[in-house]
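Field reference: "sequence" (input) and "structure" (output). Example, Biotin transport system ATP-binding protein:
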Amino acid sequence: MSDIVLDNVTVEYPGGRTAVSELSVRLTERRIAVIGSNGSGKSTFARTLNGLITPTIGAVRVHGLDPVRQAKELRRRVGFVFSNPDTQIIMPTVAEDAAFSLRRRGLSRAEIADRVAAALDRVGLTGYADSPAHSLSGGEKQLLALCAVLIGEPSLVVADEPTAYLDGVNSRRIAGFLLDQMPQQLVLVTHDLRLAARCDVAVRFDGGRLVDQGEPGPVIARYERDQDLA
Ligand SMILES: Nc1ncnc2c1ncn2[C@@H]1O[C@H](COP(=O)(O)OP(=O)(O)OP(=O)(O)O)[C@@H](O)[C@H]1O
């Protein structure tokens, strides 16, 4: 079950700005790129998927779950990665930060240590477990943020411009992990059209509306053409 379904979703922010208008879409692909110009509604759409934002009108179902009525279960199933890795680090050491989402799950210390070791290994941070989290480089911090999300074993990862703060080398590292190594379904909000091109499907927002969707190549080409004409 990897369906992401939005039915006639409108999101209005306090003050009356409509960020997403009458959005109906069903997405089932593993890697979903979300593209569009600044302020077009991409982040708002992404935040409806884990209940960070509740639609003013309409309904969202993510892997069969309602983000409003099944909020707790949904947050376990949907991991969210933000742009700025500094804002995602909560605990003093790398291992403690990686383990944060496992609290209150009734796991033994040994189980937590095993899971942390496996998760750090997956993102290539073995050896950093006892390091202060804030001493990591930007790219390593973003890998830690991903690790902290993946350790909870989500079925969907929503990443909102996860490479925006990173240099070329670290962007490639994060993108390679998200796109090529991670088995989970991915919703990737990005201005990097080369990353969008590597996804299985692209959706494009403009002025709060979903204006195009399909194979990334043609969707990106039409977006670039429209930008050139603007
Ligand atoms: N918390 C908020 N309160 C009021 N308006 C908001 C809020 N967050 C976003 N908006 C507005 O909603 C619209 C869509 O914003 P959103 O962040 O979803 O766009 P975006 O496509 O992700 O933009 P960007 O590419 O610049 O990150 C914009 O006009 C924005 O100003």
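The radius of gyration is 18 Å.
Helices lie at 42-48, 71-77, 94-99, 109-122, 138-150, 168-181, 193-197, 216-229.
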